[in-house]
Amino acid sequence: MKSNVGHAQAAAGVAGVMKMVLAMGEGWLPATLHVGEPSRKVDWGSGRVRLLTEGREWVRGDRPRRAGVSSFGISGTNAHVILEEAPDEDTPVHDGTEPHAPAVVLSLSARSARALPAQAERLHAFLEDRPGLPPSALARALGTRRAALGHRAAVTGTDRDRLLAGLQDLATGRPSPGVVTGRARTGGRTAFLFTGQGAQRPGMGLELRAHYPVFAAAFDEIDALLGLDLVGVLGGDDPEAVHRTQYAQTALFAYEVALFRLLESFGVRPDALAGHSVGEIAAAHVAGVLDLADACALVGARGRLMQALPEGGAMVAVQAGEDEVLPLLDDRVGLAAVNGPDSVVLSGERDAVLAAAATFPRTKRLSVSHAFHSPLMDGMLDDFRAVAGRLAFREPRVEVVSALTGRPATGEQLRDPEHWVRHVRRTVRFADAVSALAASGVTRYVELGPDAVLTGLARDGAGESGGAFVALGRRRGGEPEVLLSGLARLHTDGLPLDWAALFPGTVRAEPPTYAFRHERYWLNADVPLVPDRPAPQGPAGASRATGSVDADHLTDTIESADATGSADVADRTDAVGPTGAPALRQRLAQAPPAEQEALLTDLVRSRAAVVLGHRGPEDVEPDAVFLEIGLDSVSAAELRGALGTALGLDVPAGAVFDHRTPLALAAHLRERILGGGDGTEPADADDLRTVGGLVRRAAADGRWERALTLLHAVADILPGFSSAAEFGDVAEPVRLATGDAGPRLVCLPSPMALGGAHQYARFARHFHGRRDVLVPDVPGFVPGEPLPRSVDAVVEVVTEGIHRAVAGDERPYVLLGYSSGGQLAHAAAEVMEKAGRPASGVVLLDTYLLGDGDTEHLRREMFNGLLDRESAVGGFGTARLAAMSRYSDLIPYCLPGALTAPVLFVRPRDPFAPGLDDWRAVWNGAHELAEVPGTHFTILEDRAGSTAEAVENWLTGTAAP
Questions:
Q1: pTM across the whole model
Q2: Are strands 741-748 and 813-818 parallel, antiparallel or unpaired?
Q3: pLDDT tens, position by position, 55-65
């Protein structure tokens, strides 16, 4: 390699591997350059080893081609590898058995949305060239042998031609009904919604029963317990039979439970369950509240007793709010359902219901045999109570949000037979149930029913949450294709699937690898870079005398890329730099809101691209998390400076970390520029007009107690929260590393002014490609967020963030906390353990239990150490300092409790300030101790590699799954 590219140092070994792989691919062995005289220390006369002084062909023969690559480290560590060529592509790949698949999903993913078409084009060519390859084998290979990256697409089809057409549409950017794209979200919970009566249809489930044995087994078991011959009813000649209440409710139950079992076999599991009317019985059964026999007894009695009531009555859907219809309710008219803010259903005696509905302009009478959830149901309640009283109810294994109350149901409620009696008669509060699901962090709503009934209601009820709303059944279309289309949408949203279970078989396929974009990084120069090579004509501005690039020309080029990245952005951002800032501000002031947001988002993306070394703003997605795409404290400061120059303002301290995507940061900048002020604020560290300036002055004078007193007063003025519900939406965790190994790392930052996901940026680099590293937020540090009033409130919000980090992934996880964040990690682990989702272990990074008065000197030096590192987050704003003050008050009360998970306690070998006595942190509970190089601060800074190594050694041992 040295003769080709020079001394590659640490990259020499991998460069040698790349060279020989390319040589195999090209069928040519390149000559070793500049040989001169061979080494005299090698006996060239014996053996068959020769210097390759001339290039020669290296074609495929009867024996596989092999190459040896060696790398010799200066420390004496040597590495050797033997490469062997891959089998010929003409080797058949479709040996084996492959069950018939009624529909297939081909999954693709990429690092950016722009890369997906290239992936589709490559996959299209691969499938087209292999007519004998079953598409299901390719689908399985794509799901199990290729990484699932953040930007995703899925192509669904029932045959090869439709799959090829979908891939072609994706490659060319044409809309296609068989293609879905999306961005996999991290965290977020999944809720299954079970449809109620009204969604039933003739033949529902029969296609799924014919193609999927798991569905058939579950459906037939229920049919046998009910004794109603549901298969015969659904497939019979009477299309009205399934609409009779006795058959409708039981058939829906059988369909929904069988579909749940099928999804379960595909690796799709919910975090929460909810059902509309009779659908709640299916939800209760799959949650473990009722075994199958008792659940069949309950739903069978419900349908039978309702069917036996006299027919009549009416149900009318009304576009109105609950408060509008309440005055019309009496013993003849009931409120059957509240499905949305302006969607209710009236039910009861025919004439009375129709008269009440006639007072509203938009109504729809429902086609039903009985007036459900109305006073007309009272006649069957005693008999139904007797049936429910004989059943055995158990604690739910999965959270159930009851539409009877519109809130998460307790085990005591679900075990009470009277709950199910009231459930027959009272209002279905589905809108409240959806609101409760959204408040609990649900972002995926999956409807299990034969038609899309609840999906639209859930979308209306969840509001502008940006969630995924997927119905797995439809009246139109083949059932397997509809199901797989829904699974494709869930996959693109980030929900993991068991592809081997979805497409079982033994045919092996090797899908094409990633369609990398090839970019040239060689510097253009007009002098020979190798001897005897003519010099190319260089660009204007290049120095012909030295071959170096003229500094002014290079600056101009960077400014051009900085300002634009594309001609379109250049037109929209006008000039840059101090002279261009007023023009840009004027442009923003005159533009409509949508254009303002677009202008600022483009500006943030273009500046971030330059800071990160990308070619243009298209490489920075609008919703990309800055920390996840490589921004650290240094580059964040550079971005702040670049944005401040372009806009002519001082970008607030910590803005890049507080507003963590280009979209969010652009919105913040827009508010500052156009919100009525001049967009500037004091930035001088010694400025006494700000809380931060006063704190720094007090600390500089040695009056740190006065600084803390000031911060306590500020924290008391700011709003607070006492529960997760009062806090509001919990942010999605930041993903700093991705890997397949378990356990995953969920890291809690220190609840001090330096805290945030950026604390783990260096630490996480050592886990790239190995294991996931996710960082939930500690609340209160973002401007505008309320501060916690108690330890319980903090732990509740932090635990919700942990739930989001581990949701949808059954792999084990370990909680890690730095400094005081270790106390929060331990407390959250206790909560998660009690909730049945325990951590495999807890890692505490130099966690001090600062509860004693003897630690005042230690506290003061730690406070000074924080101020010394203020530049790491671009400065401490009021929100950060006030939050630190509040947590300083709360943390002494966050004491460790009982925990069965193993604990690793990591502490540094060196003190973080001179003259400290008893500076070493001590953990009194059971733990394993690991000491690492560095101080309290540097173990996550320049010593982060050693810290990560200690954690990794423990993870692969004690906490390994």
A1: 0.70
A2: parallel
A3: 899 988 888 99
